[in-house]
Amino acid sequence: MVRELAIKDLHVAVEGREILKGVNLTVRQGETHALMGPNGSGKSTLASALMGHPNYEVTSGEVLIDGENVLEMSPDERAKKGLFLAFQYPMSIPGVSVANFLRLAYGAVSKPDETDPEPYRKTMTAREFRQLLRDKLGLLKMDETMLSRYLNEGFSGGEKKRCEILQMAVLQPRFAVLDETDSGLDIDALRIVADGVNAQRNGELGTLVITHYQRLLNYIKPDFVHILVGGRIVKDGGPELALELDETGYEQIISKYGDGGAAPAR
Amino acid sequence: MSVTANPLEKTEYQYGFHDDVQPVFKSKKGLSREVVEEISYMKNEPDWMRKFRLRALEMFERRPMPNWGGPALADIDFDNIYYYLKPSEGQSRSWDDVPSEIKNTFDRLGIPEAEKKFLAGVGAQYESEVVYHNIREDLEKQGVIFVDTDTAVRAYPELVQKYFGKVIPPNDNKFASLNSAVWSGGSFIYVPENVHVELPLQAYFRINAENMGQFERTLIICAPGSYVHYVEGCTAPIYSTDSLHSAVVEIVVEQGARCRYTTIQNWSKNVYNLVTKRAAAYRDATMEWVDGNLGSKLTMKYPSVFMLEPGAKGEILSIAFAGDGQHQDAGGKVVHLAPWTSSSIVSKSISKGAGRASYRGLLKIAKGAIGAKSSVRCDALLLDEHSRTDTYPYIEVEEDRKVAISHEASVSKVGEDQLFYLRSRGLDEVEATSMIVRGFIEPIAKELPLEYALELNRLIQLEMVGSVG
Predict the structure, then answer these.
(1) Does B417 touch chain A (CB under 8 A)?
(2) For burial by CB atoms within 10 Å, which of A147, B155, B157, B158 has the most?
């Protein structure tokens, strides 16, 4: 069976205002999709709604993981199903070390319970988990000192994004959504983060990379590119679409393919 | 024995069970000269102590109730309390000799096990009397005394008479007077010169009966150059009527000595906890209070350090957790009475539901305390929109030569975005909130011995269950 994350005719409102107006997108395991769009097109809204942020109201549509609708699930239940969101603005949690956080988070997603009696992640002994941490740090070429720091507390922009990718590597999702992971990164940091993501790409993982700029896609090569404008996907294509966009800019794309049926949100 | 709580059930308070223990003696309800005389008689005390008690009773009766602190103070019914309850005959040095129902309680609280694993000595008080007391033999051979205070009055009269009621005189405040009149139990510790007690000594205080008043009295003397870490824990059953816990703790830290006093207070939510704790620190001595308040209906407790000679140091770490219906009025006092003394207070309070956590503290620098340094930091965390926090910092500075003081305060809320972030990683709402709270108190929790830090984390997790969802 090929696993898939299917978004079907998704409508999402924030504070009563409709932002997403019927998004359709399917990410299968092994695939990398890029979702591009101008500011205010609804990219981050999609990311937050997929993960179940309480302020994002799904007014209609479905989000299915392997055929199961996850919209009624809490964010933690979605995480157990294998969904992961790399945040554009990761929150800091003072007093909680990265290592401790990862241990508890892994424990939570690998623990069987009534919502998920057979989670796909295996439970680990403390020793096995330490080994996993070391392996993933090595994979991402990160320093062990990060583990003893408090989660995102005093991290630079680049460190926060790398920490998100470390969390992704440790929690081993089936579907990862990267929300503007490139924002605020200089070119060196961008490369490191992209290398981290690429190191996790295999036949198992389905990835949705959300970005404003084509730049990131030079490092994370997508199989498919979608352009979101005004809350709708106005164009699907292959990697060449991102290059076209880079040359022409969003204005031309909008005049060529339409604005999604509405003025851009801003 | 009957047990009223299922330990597997996820209740907010897991120590709320009580045992059917028939006391061997119970004073009649209410407070009177007769009751005080009776306590003294039961204890077969020297006359000076009997007189001390009776004088204190007069002080208690004369003094009005404090008009600050918790509004719930006004609801205390002093006539509806048993002031003395003797649970068993005598005291044991072996758990095997403790009456089985009582031993069972302490088993459930994990005390004998903790004693074996990481403590140098244990005292266990049940109602008014200490039923078990023991200290490791090697420490005893070095001259360390660790007994209950009643035993100390009989066995070490000179030491007791020299220090008892000196750091906290009976007229200090209304509840110190009350304790001085009806005190029973508590720990007496004497650490001889230059002796370091490496493992903690622990006392555990358990109230079992309804409408009980527990008034232990603790006196710790650290001779020059010595070190001791004393830990106290406390729990009580849940009853619909109120109980009263009013302790007095006096500590003398002599030249170059260091004393650390750690409290994990987890009374059930029907207990008034009104405690006076004070240390006198002499030349180059260090006093450290680590004060964790999780339980009780109303706590009013401000551990204090009086720095009496140059170089003395006081450190107070305070954690207060005010759940629904609780009021934690906690903090600390540092009083600089000599030059080149230094102090710090770090307070972390958490309020949940309709809970209220107040920081109340005093920083005093007396005339002549040249070069005194002090920093006060209080941080409050609110878990929801109903919870409340207040700060009452009292600062009295009479000396300005080379004096450095700082005061910082912050209030933060657990944010929706913080919770969402943690939940997106698989933690449910309880786990996510607990993680934020644990992180918040981490700077203090890391000062605790590992076992107590784990216990504190577990208690906070339990407090979260039932509060969200």
Answers:
(1) yes
(2) A147
Across chain B, which has 469 residues, the per-10-residue mean pLDDT values are: 38 79 90 96 95 98 94 93 93 91 90 91 93 93 96 96 97 98 97 96 93 96 98 90 96 98 93 97 98 94 98 97 94 98 97 94 97 97 90 96 96 92 96 94 89 84 63
B343: Cβ contacts below 8 Å, ≥ 6 apart: B305, B307, B313, B314, B315, B316, B334, B336, B363, B372, B373, B374, B375
Burial call A5-37: b when 16+ CB within 10 Å, e when fewer: bbbeebbbbbeeebbbbbbebebebebbbbbbb
- The answer to whether the CB atoms of A104 and B435 lie below 8 A apart is yes
The answer to whether A170 and A136 have CB atoms below 8 angstroms apart is yes
Contacts of A104 in chain B (CB under 8 A): 427, 431, 435
**Total domains, chain A:** 1
Look at residues B228, B316, B304, B232 and name the one whose alpha carbon lies nearest to residue B266. B232
Which string of DSSP letters, residue by residue, matches B367-393?
Answer: TT-TT-EEEEEEEEEE-STT-EEEEEE
Residue B469: count of CB within 10 angstroms of its CB: 8
Question: Is A107 part of a structural domain of the chain?
Answer: yes
Residue A102 sits in which domain range? Answer: 75-187
Report yes or no: A137 at the B interface, CB cutoff 8 Å: no
DSSP 8-state code for residue A42: S
Question: Which H or E run contains B228?
Answer: strand B227-235
Q: Is B453 left (phi over 0), alpha (psi -120 to 50) or beta?
A: alpha
**A234: in domain:** no
Q: Characterise B460 by phi-psi region: left (phi > 0), alpha (psi -120 to 50), beta (else).
A: alpha
Choose from A91, A101, A167, A168 for mutation: most chain B CBs within 10 A. A91
Q: What is the CATH number of the domain that holds A104?
A: 3.40.50.300
Check if the beta carbon of residue A27 is closer than 8 Å to that of residue A20: no
Nearest in space to B38 (alpha carbons), one of B91, B88, B83, B90:
B83
Look at residue A257 and tell me if it is in a domain. Answer: no
- Return the closest-CA partner of residue B379 out of B416, B351, B418: B351
